[in-house]
Design goal:
The protein has 127 residues and is of the alpha+beta class. It is built from five helices and seven strands; from the N terminus they run H-E-H-E-E-H-E-E-H-E-E-H.
Length: 127
């Protein structure tokens, strides 16, 4: 059985955001990385994962309420770290979480809680 670490895409610090960043920053990180989520980390040096912001969160948590992305903090719309995947979790668990969260992509955390990558619906198609 495959685990998330085998199917994930490695992450770069520029693809992450902090709870204090704006939703606009998170959306830019998603656009620049081509990923449907932005891992939310305590700081971009250590990448300790604290949650996730998805494309859906940006739309439903900001735009749908006619809130300016540059004025809303990520902490107001982010999902908790429990929505993320563990590196050693089975691929089927990642599929379940993606479906449950209605997301196309979720961050992957290593044993120390650091963000090490992302898994996506598209990346799991071959598994």
């Amino acid at each position: 059985m495959s685990c998330c670490s085998e199917v994930m895409t490695p992450i770069e610090a520029s693809s992450c955001c902090t709870p204090h960043d704006t939703v606009a920053h998170a959306a830019q990180a998603m656009r620049d990385s081509g990923c449907g989520c932005a891992p939310v980390v305590e700081d971009t040096e250590h990448l300790k994962l604290v949650g996730v912001v998805t494309e859906r969160d940006v739309c439903c948590g900001g735009a749908a309420d006619d809130r300016r992305a540059s004025e809303v903090r990520v902490e107001k719309i982010m999902r908790p770290v429990s929505a993320c995947c563990g590196a050693s979790e089975p691929v089927e668990e990642a599929r379940r979480k993606l479906h449950e969260q209605r997301a196309t992509c979720l961050p992957v955390a290593d044993k120390a809680g650091g963000c090490c990558g992302t898994v996506s619906v598209h990346g799991l198609e071959k598994w």
